[in-house]
C-alpha cells in the first residue's frame, strides 16, 4: 500500500503537500508542543523515499549526491527548529550549505558551456547577492561569513541548474530550475526576517511553503530527468 502511494506521482504529490500543510499549521499554532520534531522531518523523509523508489539515475555517485543532500537538509531542518540557539542555527546553516553543494554536484555535467550564455544570469544573481547583503550586513555580526557563503553557494546552484538546459528534457530542466529559484525566495525571507525586519508579513507561512515547494520541484524534476543526446553533424 505504502509503496503504491510513493509510485503514484499524483497521489504522492497530494500526500506530500498535505504533510507540508500540516507542518505549517503546527508551526503556526503548536510551537510550544514538540510536534514539529515529527512534522518537519517528514517533509524531507517523504521526498527521500520518493526519490529512492522512482529515480532512473544510472550513476551511483549522482544518486549518492541526492541522498547526501537530502540527509543534510533533514538534519538541518531539525536543528533549525531551535532558531534561538546560536550554535544549532550555525550548524544547520552549514548543513544546508553542504546540502546545496551536493545538489550542485548532481546538476553538474561534463560538457563545455559558454560564459557569454551564463553572463546575464550571473549578473542577475550577483546583483541580488549585493542587494540582500546591503540590507542585512549591519545586523549580521558573527553570521556575516556563513551568510555570505550561503548566498554564494545558493547562486552557484542556480547556475548549475541552468546549465542542465541542453542536457536533459525540458520538463526536468524547468522543474529543477524553478525549484532552486523558489528556494531562494525562502532563503531571502529568512534573511530579511532574521536580520532586517522581524515583522516580515506572513514569514511563518512563506518560509516553509517556499522551502517545501522548492524541494518537491527539485526532487520531482530529477526523477523526471531524461538525458538529451546531442546531434552529431557530419559533412
From TrEMBL:
Coarse class of the protein's main subcellular location: membrane
Membrane topology qualifier: Multi-pass membrane protein
Keyword check for Transmembrane: yes
Transmembrane region(s): 12-29, 35-53, 65-81, 87-105, 117-137, 143-163, 175-196, 202-223
Family classification: Belongs to the TMEM86 family.
Taxonomy, superkingdom: Bacteria
Compartments reported by the entry: Membrane
Keyword terms of this UniProt record: Membrane, Transmembrane, Transmembrane helix
One GO CC term, this protein: membrane
UniProt keyword Transmembrane, yes or no: yes
GO MF: hydrolase activity
The name this protein goes by in its record: Lysoplasmalogenase
Amino acid at each position: 500500500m505504502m509503496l503504491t502511494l510513493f509510485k503514484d506521482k499524483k497521489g504522492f504529490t497530494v500526500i506530500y503537500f498535505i504533510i507540508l500543510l500540516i507542518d505549517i499549521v503546527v508551526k503556526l499554532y503548536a510551537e510550544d508542543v514538540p510536534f514539529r520534531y515529527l512534522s518537519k522531518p517528514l517533509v524531507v523523509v517523504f521526498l527521500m523515499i520518493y526519490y529512492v523508489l522512482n529515480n532512473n539515475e544510472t550513476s551511483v555517485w549522482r544518486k549518492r549526491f541526492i541522498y547526501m543532500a537530502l540527509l543534510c537538509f533533514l538534519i538541518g531542518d531539525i536543528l533549525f527548529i531551535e532558531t534561538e540557539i546560536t550554535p544549532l542555527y550555525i550548524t544547520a546553516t552549514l548543513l544546508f550549505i553542504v546540502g546545496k553543494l551536493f545538489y550542485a554536484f548532481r546538476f553538474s555535467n561534463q560538457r563545455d558551456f559558454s560564459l557569454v550564455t551564463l553572463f546575464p544570469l550571473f549578473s542577475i544573481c550577483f546583483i541580488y547577492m549585493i542587494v540582500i547583503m546591503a540590507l542585512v550586513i549591519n545586523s549580521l555580526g558573527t553570521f556575516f561569513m556563513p551568510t555570505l557563503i550561503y548566498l554564494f553557494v545558493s547562486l552557484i546552484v542556480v547556475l548549475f541548474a541552468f546549465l542542465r538546459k541542453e542536457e536533459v528534457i525540458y520538463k526536468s530542466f524547468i522543474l529543477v530550475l524553478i525549484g532552486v529559484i523558489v528556494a531562494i525566495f525562502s532563503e531571502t525571507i529568512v534573511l530579511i526576517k532574521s536580520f532586517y525586519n522581524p515583522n516580515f508579513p506572513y514569514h511563518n507561512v512563506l518560509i516553509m511553503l517556499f522551502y517545501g515547494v522548492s524541494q518537491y520541484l527539485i526532487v520531482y524534476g530529477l526523477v523526471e530527468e531524461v538525458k538529451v543526446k546531442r546531434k552529431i553533424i557530419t559533412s
